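Format is chain and fold; as here:
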Amino acid sequence: MFLKAGALSLALLLASRLLGLLRESAQAAAFGTSAFADVVVLMLTLPDWLAGVLASGALAYVLVPAWAGKAPAQVAASQRRVAWCLLGGGGVLALLLFIAREPALALLAPGLPVAMQPIAAAALAWSALALPAALLAALWTTRLQHERDFTGMYSANLVVNAVLIAAIAWAAGR
């Protein structure tokens, strides 16, 4: 049983990594090494990076042991409380990022050409909008980790990468 589960997890992890490589290749093919490519990378990676720095590891470190041995209803109630806190905190952080787009852009992409800055500011607005969802995704991943549903964790990553590849291909065709 463990060998089969481990093999499935490994296969899904490898598929996720290969799809991530395909996503990066699609970005490179669509946007090259232009300033626009830098903006796309910033827009797509900022919410995940912020969620990773602010929440992902801490959520797993705190919640997985706290949920151990708890009834499913208690785990669900705790998850709801944390979700509301993440939505609130993520909303405040998103609003701050939205308001301070230009200074944030100067910190995150200092070498960006002046002509690209309005597009990059708009991209940061979209990143800010995605931040609360990225924080919730970190919580849901923690719940899947608690449930030992590694198949769900890796499969979710596959879905995200597939959607991003489709969006990049669509944008490149326009």
Observations:
- The longest helix spans residues 35-67.
- The chain has a mean pLDDT of 88.
- The helical segments are 2-31, 35-67, 72-99, 101-108, 117-146, 150-173.
- The CA atoms of residues 28 and 37 lie 7 Å apart.
